Amino acid sequence: MDIDFLGAADCVTGSRHRVGIAGSRILLDCGLFQGFKVLRERNWAPPSQALREVDAIVLSHAHLDHSGWLPVLAKHGWRGPVYASPATCDLAQVLLLDSAHLQEEDARRANRYGYSSHAKALPLYTRADAQRALSLLKPLAPGKAQRIGGATLTLSPVGHLLGACAVHLQGQGESLLFSGDLGRDNDLLMPPPVPAQGADVVLVESTYGNRRHPVVDVAAELGAIVRDTIGRGGSVLMPSFAVGRAQALLLALQRLKAAGEIPQDLPIFLDSPMAIAATALYRRHARSLRIPARESRALMDGVRAVETAQQSMRLARLRYPSVIISASGMATGGRVLHHLKSMAPDPRHHLVFAGFQVGGSRGARIVGGESEVKIHGEYVPIRARVSQLEGFSGHADADGILAWLGSLPRAPRQAFVVHGEPDASDTLRLRIKDELGWHVRVPQHGERVNL
User: Fold this and answer.
1) Which CATH class is domain 218-392?
2) Which CATH number fits domain 2-211+394-450: 3.40.1080.10, 3.30.565.10, 3.40.50.720, 3.60.15.10?
C-alpha cells in the first residue's frame, strides 16, 4: 500500500489522498483548497500524473473542500467513476453547479469592475465542467461492497452532513480506513457516527483536534442574540454553509419561535438558491436525520425563500429587523457579501458565524476582530457586533474524534492525522499516541508514504 497526501495534509482544506492498494489507484476526496491565498493558488495547478491516473474517486461527503475540485479533473479529461453515498451524490449536484456558477459570476464581476490582478479573470471551472464531473457519480449505499479492481470499497455513516461516510478499502490482505469528516454525538440534525471497521492504516481528520466544544445551549445563545439585536432595531446576518449548517440554523430558529423565545412574526430569509435546494434534499432524506419527520417538514415554515439575484438585492436594502441566512459560511463569496457590505458598517446589526472559519478566509478575519475587510475590491468597515457560535459546528471535537477512534475493533499499524490546522493536527497526534498508544504522525503536503 502507498499513499500520496495531495491535500489537507498541512491544512484543514483541499482533501485529496491517493491510495494504492491491491493494484488499484483510488483518490479519497477531490476537494477545493480554501482560505489563505497560498492555499487557494494550489487549485490552479494542473492535475499531477498521480491524479490523472487514478482508477476511481471516492467522496466522503459533498462539502466543497472534499468534492469541489472534481470539475477541474473533468475539465482535464478524467472520466473514471466517482463513488459516494446516494445523499452525497444528490448534494453534489447542488454544490458543484452552484460553485461553478459563483466562479463564473466572480470572474465576470472582476472583469467588469477591473479589480482582478489578471488581464482577464477566468473561472477555475464552468457549469459545463461541473456537469461533466456530475455525470461520473456512482451512488453506493452505506454497507454495500463495491469492487475497484483488486480492492473492495465500503462506506459507513459518520454524521456531520447528510450522506457523509467514512471510507474503508481492503484487498490482498491489507486495509485502510479514512474518517472523512466526523460528526458530533449531539448534532442537531445528524445521528452520531457509526463505529467503523478496523484497518491496518487509519487516516483521521483533525478540524477540532485541539479543542472541546463549549457546553452551552446554542439555541438559547442564538435566541438571546436575536432578541437583543431586534430590540435595538437591527437585523441578524448569518453567513452559513448552504448544506448542513443552514438547515441546522432553520431548525433552531423554528424551535425558538415555537417556544416563544423569539417573535412568531419575525421575518426569516433564506437567501441562497443552493441552501433552498439543499433543504429540499434534507426533507427528502428525512429518514437519515435524527429529528422527527414533522420537524424536517417544517424547516421552511414561514421562511421567505430568496430565489433571484434581484430579490437578494432588494433584501440587502431592507430597513426592518429580520434574520438573514445567506451563503457562503466563511464569507468567501456569494450573496452574503452584498449583505455584509450593507450591514457590517452599522452597529445596530449583528453578524453571527455558526461554525469553523478556515484561516485566511474573510469570515476568520471578521471573527478575529479586524476593523475592515475587502469585498469586491473595496474595504468595508466592521462596526456591527460579531459572534461565533461553535455549538452549531458539524464537526466532532477532540474528545469525539478520540471516542470514534477508540470504538474501532483493533488498533491500526499506522495512523495519519489529516485535515487540520498544524496546531490542531499535532495536538490530536499527541493525544492518539498517549491515550490510544498508536503509531501516529502528521504527513506533509505532497508526501508519499509506502507501507
Assistant:
1) alpha beta
2) 3.60.15.10
